[in-house]
Write a structure and sequence with these properties.
heterodimer; A: alpha+beta; Arc Repressor Mutant, subunit A; Glutaredoxin; four-stranded mixed β-sheet; B: alpha/beta; 5 domains; five-stranded mixed β-sheet; 24 helices; 15% strand; globular
């Protein structure tokens, strides 16, 4: 069962309504009708825009679709794609699917954890990197796979992975 | 334009391309191609073509499935068979452009194989190679040959002919044809497709839905992704045919968000279908309406289960519900719904194009046709394959796959993903079909086939799969929610050296309970990896529990790294590389690993020069090694 994880080192979420979030939410919701079937696509837009699901955004969606906020929160906590706390500027995802697992993924994961000083699921205190593991990217024949900011790298080794997080970093 | 006119144009365009006097290079730029460096190859190609003053048309195609050789491309020279070159680097691209595109030497030393009419000396035909010869490519028929972003390529290769045929038949006749083919669902359960369609067709009501399950969540499986990236129309044509047969006017493709390129291809494909009059209202003037929408998953394995999938489309948490009623009677928003897997749909279009008897000529009596597999793990030729049902595991692993990597010993093959089982050596000659795999205690599943060698610990494999299913459990059923957690805790104790007598029996008892007490196939099959590894590799469990020993030398808590005194030459590479500074020893001194500091990362084993091979792993027995470094060659 997926449970919302706190992210180590992330700054506290700001309290009080944020005008910037509010106006962006108006923009996002303008593309939807307000039907229940749109809940997940709406949240996906929010995730893409903000990098996580601000509480304020979830409340706006609940109002728009006329469902209790707990319903929206329930969806946000159920699906792994949604984060409830801000993520770093660079997202590093290491595949822990079977094909990658049997070809050395655990070692790559622990070496990246050591290098960045955070655990799987965590974000560095300077908000530069978030490290995640994913159940499968579907590039199993090129195991082990590491994705840095949507760039897929196959046939990785711990050294190559450490190098990739440097070269693919957003400037 | 009518379809006939579109088809004429498509064919003439295709033939013009085939007979073109210009050079053509087909390069795989689907996810695997890109992940292995196709972008660098494209750049190198542009550079080298300009340098050698050669013009060539570059066509970006999907995966041909030879992932072990990616990045690769196919060079088409007029009047010659095309030549495939694999494991490309920018340097090799320079040589190939200079020697074959600009020159007359096809470089047999670099070429993989040829395709098309004619032969070239010293280069075998690609499809005669052991990796391709046993394959029968029905689902993958166009992958690697056509530009998936160009509907005309699909149409020129019998595309949508199946649908045109279906339109001339009555819906019941189309269902009968699918029944006659013997096609069974390719998502894992293997339910007869024609029968499923019949149920939905017979359900009362005018509003019905068709769904394509593209949630491919099994770790280790990527067949559906390759088809959607390489030939999306094969799937969409299947859905059109199904909608017509069943009487549905709306369809959904539920695709996992982790497949952005496949989503992109689908969006383009749907738009092109509309432009050709193949989607929308009154399709090709037949009076039949059909619209398709794309819904993205949000990262939940359980949403591959049909009722959870529908809940997700409806905007809820993806939690399964009990059946009956089955989706065919009451599915999406309570309406009769038919859900099929990507591969099933791609087979439907082929069956209507070429006929049910043709399809049924492949495979075995109860498992007709072919199956795609993602053949991965510790194997030489990893990739995407498609073979007739009934082929043996040995033919796949040794023949197509080229055997175990690094000359190591085969240990097990895992089929069916987290719902499946690990089959040992004794099953290598079993046929691959629904019944045989089930009888062995595994399942066909969606097509993941992970090969493991002597260094993979089977207890750890069970733990690995339980970690996955436990975290993906939706939580609805008590036995799944708690049972998977309990099983995982026990397995973690075992791999950490804390296993106790009775743990194996407890795992079996909980496993049986979870299977029986779960409402969906996630819980219903989550215990399988543990139960099958206990069945076939019980000795490994017993070694972990009784002797605190990991026979595969893999479980970190149970292994020790040590340096073999009479092999170490004191080069110092390991000491410098050790991240915990756990290795003592100076120049030309036999080095010693301080067991208290060692974190068992394995770096020393990796960096010790092969000619010395002085680092080894032991498990279960205390290692007799030096306490302090001594001079190399001196007395211990």
């Amino acid at each position: 069962m997926k449970v919302a994880q706190a992210t180590e080192g992330a700054p506290a979420v700001t309290k009080g309504p944020d005008k910037a979030i509010d106006s962006q939410m108006t923009e996002i919701l303008a593309h939807f009708k307000g039907e229940k079937g749109e809940l997940i696509p709406m949240l996906q837009q929010v995730q893409q825009r903000f990098g996580y699901l601000p509480e304020q955004a979830m409340k706006r969606i609940a109002d728009f679709v006329h469902v209790p906020p707990s319903t929206v929160f329930g969806i946000g906590t159920f699906y792994a794609q949604f984060k409830l706390v801000p993520t770093g500027r660079n997202i590093v995802k290491v595949c822990r699917g079977t094909g990658c697992y049997v070809r050395g993924a655990p070692r790559i994961i622990s070496e990246l954890e050591n290098k960045l000083g955070i655990k799987d699921g965590g974000t560095t205190p300077d908000m530069e990197y978030t490290l995640e593991t994913v159940a499968c990217f579907g590039s199993c024949a090129l195991a082990p796979v590491v994705v840095v900011n949507d760039k897929v790298h196959g046939r990785m080794t711990p050294d190559a992975a450490k190098k990739a997080i440097g070269t693919d970093k957003k400037s | 334009m009518s379809f006939e006119e579109i088809k004429k144009q498509a064919i003439s365009q295709w033939e013009a391309m085939q007979d073109s006097p210009r050079l053509r290079i087909l390069i795989g730029t689907a996810t695997c191609g890109m992940a292995s460096g196709a972008e660098d190859i494209l750049e190198a190609l542009d550079k080298e073509l300009a340098k050698n003053n050669v013009t060539a048309d570059i066509v970006q195609v999907g995966c041909i499935g030879l992932c072990f050789a990616e990045p690769l491309f196919e060079v088409v020279k007029p009047g010659k068979p095309s030549v495939f070159y694999g494991n490309l680097t920018p340097a090799l691209v320079a040589e190939i452009v200079r020697d074959w595109l600009a020159g007359d030497n096809p470089r047999p030393d670099l070429a993989m194989g040829t395709r098309g009419e004619g032969t070239l000396e010293g280069i075998p035909r690609l499809f005669d190679l052991p990796v391709l010869k046993p394959q029968v490519r029905i689902v993958l028929r166009n992958c690697g040959n056509i530009d998936p972003a160009n509907i005309y390529h699909y149409i020129a290769n019998n595309g949508y002919e199946g649908f045109i045929k279906a339109l001339k038949m009555k819906p019941q006749e189309v269902i009968d044809e699918v029944k006659k083919s013997g096609l069974r669902g390719r998502g894992g359960a293997g339910f007869p497709t024609g029968m499923k369609w019949q149920f939905c067709h017979d359900s009362p009501g005018t509003v019905k839905y068709i769904i394509c399950n593209a949630d491919e969540g099994d770790p280790g499986a990527f067949m559906d992704r390759a088809v959607m990236e390489g030939d999306p129309h094969a799937v969409l044509e299947g859905m059109l045919i199904g909608a017509y047969a069943i009487g549905a006017s709306e369809g959904y493709v539920y695709i996992r968000a982790e497949y952005p390129l496949a989503i992109k291809r689908l969006i383009v494909a749907l738009k092109q279908m509309e432009e050709c009059g193949l989607l929308g209202d009154n399709i090709l003037g037949s009076g039949f309406n059909f619209h398709i929408k794309i819904k993205e998953g949000a990262g939940a394995f359980v949403c591959g289960e049909e009722t959870a999938l529908m809940a997700s489309i409806e905007g809820s948490r993806g939690m399964p519900r009990s059946r009956p009623p089955f989706p065919a009677q009451s599915g999406l928003w309570g309406k009769p719904t038919n859900i099929n897997n990507v591969e099933t749909w791609a087979n439907v279009s082929a069956i209507l194009q070429k006929g049910a008897s043709w399809f049924a000529s492949y495979g075995t009596e109860k498992s007709k046709g072919t199956k795609t597999f993602s053949l991965v793990g510790k194997i030489v030729r990893t990739g995407l394959i498609e073979v007739p049902m009934g082929i043996s595991l040995r033919e796949i692993i040794d023949g197509i796959g080229g055997g175990i990597l690094g000359g190591k010993k085969y240990k097990a093959v895992q089929t069916g993903g987290p719902s499946g089982g690990c089959l040992p050596l004794s099953f290598l000659d079993s046929p691959v079909d629904f019944e045989s795999l089930a009888a062995a205690g595994s399942i066909m599943g969606s097509g993941g086939m992970v090969v493991m060698d002597e260094n993979n610990c089977m207890v750890d494999v069970a733990r690995y799969f339980l970690t996955f299913t436990q975290s993906e459990s939706c939580g609805k059923c008590v036995l799944c929610r708690y049972g998977t957690k309990q099983m995982l805790d026990i397995l973690q104790d075992i791999v950490n050296g804390k296993g106790r007598a009775g743990d194996i029996e407890l795992l079996q008892e909980i496993g049986d309970a979870v299977k029986n007490g779960s409402l969906c196939a996630l819980g219903g099959t989550a215990p399988n990896p543990a139960l099958t590894t206990i069945r076939y590799f019980r000795d490994e469990y017993e070694a972990h529990i009784k002797e605190k020993r990991c026979p595969a030398l893999s479980c970190r808590a149970l292994i020790s790294f040590y340096i073999i005194s009479d092999k170490c030459q004191g080069c110092g590479i390991c000491a410098r590389a050790c991240p915990s500074e756990a290795i003592k020893g100076g120049k030309r001194m036999v080095h010693v690993i301080d067991q208290a500091k060692c974190v068992k990362c394995g770096t020393c084993l990796d960096v010790c020069p092969a000619k010395f091979s002085a680092v080894a792993i032991s498990s279960g027995v205390p290692v007799k090694t030096l306490a302090e470094p001594v001079p190399v060659g001196g007395k211990a």
